[in-house]
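Sequence, please.
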């Protein structure tokens, strides 16, 4: 079984590759607001994933030490998603709201495909 930190490190590599593709799309194509929204949303999505990994490690430690476990930080991750949407709404000439929301889900799609590939190999 892989640790969450190993999975997160692999996710970071995939995320930065995808972020570079979004940056190239923003620079070379005419769909600047869409790619800017994808960049904004996926950045906030990766931040949310980082928060989840950090909280899960604390949760695991609390369980193994038989202490009371705190929450996994759903409120903070939800507020981060709202902040990304608020930025996209306040700057509609710069960011597309729908692509921002899609971008919020990019790290989880990357995680899903990574898990499919990992379990397909083993």
């Amino acid at each position: 079984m892989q640790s969450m930190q190993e999975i997160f490190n692999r996710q970071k590599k995939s995320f930065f590759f995808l972020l570079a593709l979004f940056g190239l799309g923003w620079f070379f194509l005419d769909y600047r607001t869409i790619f800017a929204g994808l960049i904004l949303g996926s950045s906030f999505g990766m931040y949310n994933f980082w928060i989840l990994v950090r909280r899960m490690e604390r949760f695991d430690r609390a369980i193994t030490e038989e202490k009371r476990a705190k929450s996994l930080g759903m409120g903070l991750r939800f507020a981060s998603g709202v902040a990304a949407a608020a930025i996209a709404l306040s700057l509609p000439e710069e960011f597309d709201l729908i692509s921002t929301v899609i971008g919020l889900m990019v790290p989880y799609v990357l995680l899903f495909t990574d898990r499919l590939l990992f379990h397909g190999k083993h």
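The mean pLDDT is 90.
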